[in-house]
Amino acid sequence: MQRYIVRRAFQSVLAIWVMSLVVFGLARVTGNPLDVMLPLEAGPEDYERVSKHWGLDKPLYIQYLIFLGKALQGDFGTSWKWHGHSAMGLVWERLPATLQLAGFALFVSVVIALPIGVLSAVMKDTAWDTLAKIIALMGQSLPGFWLGIVLMWIFAVHLGWFPTSGRGGLEYMVLPAITLGWFQTAAIMRLVRSSMLEVLDSEFVKLTRIKGLSEWKVVWKHCLRNASIAPLTFFAIIAGVLMTGSVVTESVFSWPGTGLLVVDAVRARDFQVVQAVVIVFAGIFILTNLLVDILYAYLDPRIRYR
Amino acid sequence: MATATVRTFRGHALPRVVQALRQARRYPLVPVALLTLLLVIPALLAPVVAPYDPLKGSLAKRLKPPVWQDGGSIEYPLGTDKLGRDILSRLIYGARVSLMVSLVAIVVGGAIGTGLGLVSGYFGGRTDALLMRLVDISLSLPTILLALVLVAAVGPSFATVITVLVVLLWARYARLVRAETLSIKERDFIARARVAGASHVRIMTRYIFPNVVNSLIVLATLQVGYVILLESALSFLGAGLPRPLPAWGLMIADGRELIVTAWWVSMFPGLAIMLTVLALNLLGDWLRDHLDPKLRHV
Fold first, then answer.
1. For B76, phi and psi rounded to 5 degrees?
2. Smaller CB count within 10 Å for chain A: N or C?
3. Would the CB atoms of B237 and A248 count as touching at under 8 Å?
4. What does pTM read for this prediction?
């Protein structure tokens, strides 16, 4: 187990390192890095400042060490589009909004997916089960950004139930959360259904029935508890999907989080901000993956010897 | 898959039509029909079936609604966008773009992954250890972020999108092919080929490769839909294909701010993506069940 954790942790560090190489390399292999780091409108004094900040007159390996040293201290330079802000400061400022939305989306999708998944397993091959299958299939096929636009069109523009965009009270979160949580809802539901089917078929469930427990207790207490291990491990994938999704969803609903920040930064060619967001997101993504893999290995010993 | 029975429980023969229908249900007719209509015909015959040039529009005809709404005309059955371009024509050429991007990305990524997977599984040892670490790392990179950095650095283009998709795709093929190679190379016919004097390259290409083709086809089919979704999301964000290419993701992005006044601009490309991906998923599931049931977990 310890060997597995060490190996897995080493791999995560490597992945973050590769990401830093990608960010560093892309700015420099394509000719003059200043052309990448600064937009066309930048003046000579901007060139001077950025060149000095990153040591661009020095040899490449020294530049990388400077980059790495600064990155480890959380210094990714100053933003071009948002004057007077450090790139990292902007990321920290926007991160709470992203986490709030992602958390709410996750909550909504679990609340929807769990009961439907359980019921479709209990009532296998009924109309209810077919409905669940259709939802699952839609979850795989609907482009999230388009779903967001459709929801906005129906519920915000036509019915006027929710605001179209921005951040405020709970009503601002409903449509973005559904958009962001859509894929997970389908995926969690599928997983819950298949692991519930497996558990419902097992010996101990028959025993609980023989004991005379109510059907409600059998399903919702004994089965669900045993069936929730598989969906739990799915959370690594969810971390990735939420992150990808937040970039898309936030730009549809103008939700002022990190995802919108990075899209705006790409459009304004604000490379300093892009690299800060990318490194932070990659770090979160890779760490979540690591934690879940360790948790999984702990729950299911077979994984360790793969 | 249960075999279709021709007789009912009581032994009565079923009418011919019912028999034929039952036979038909064993094949994925709906997804194949959908795909032919949405992807194959438009992609192959775009200049023939598209009524207009997808890039040229007239500002006089801008934002015409679809034919069934007030002000719509049969001239532009699905309406026009804000530059007066025909949406139907753009959808048709868009199918071509989507299909091209996903095929190129999957062929290149699949070829790289298959090659490395064969080498990794066949030789084992250090090569294998190194390649599999690379696979692990590549699978743990956040794709969309990679795409955003790349676009921030070199700008959106066809090549950028393909690069991002290939970086994302190759690892799954490498992992799959390696796993299959590991078991195939222990089989008798490989040992015999070696005794007969076949070279390593020959064994990999002529003896092992044909045995992994089924799994490759299934994985590739399941990935086409995924790649189309990803490409359209990237294009929507401005990190994919550049304008004015008629890419479905870009068309949805164009219609975003018009959602109050002209819903049709982003609604139709979204429907096209949804139906295409849905059909591809259904077809992929069917292929998996029939060609390679052991891939169920993929």
1. -120, 85
2. C
3. yes
4. 0.80
Identity (one letter) of the amino acid at A164? T
Coil, helix or strand at residue A78: strand
- The two structure tokens encoding residue B298: 């993929």
Q: Determine how many CB atoms are found less than 10 A away from the CB of residue A159.
A: 9
Sequence-distant (≥ 6) Cβ neighbours of residue A60 within 8 angstroms: A28
CA end-to-end distance (rounded Å), chain B: 19
The pLDDT score that the predictor gives to residue B174 is 92
In this complex, which of A157, A248, A289 lies closest to B236 when CB atoms are compared?
Answer: A248
CB contact under 8 A, A11 and B281: no
Find the DSSP H helices in chain A: 2-29, 33-37, 44-54, 60-72, 87-122, 127-141, 144-151, 170-200, 203-210, 215-217, 224-227, 229-233, 235-253, 258-267, 271-299
Q: What is the DSSP letter of B40?
A: I
Q: Rounded distance, CA A214 to CA A71, Å?
A: 58
- How many residues make up chain B in this entry? 298
Cross-chain CB nearest to A23 (options B149, B274, B277): B149
In this predicted model, what pLDDT tens digit does every residue of B231-240 receive, in sequence order? 888 888 888 8
Instruction: Name the residue type at position A151.
Output: L
Residue B2, CB half-sphere, CA atoms under 13 Å: how many?
5
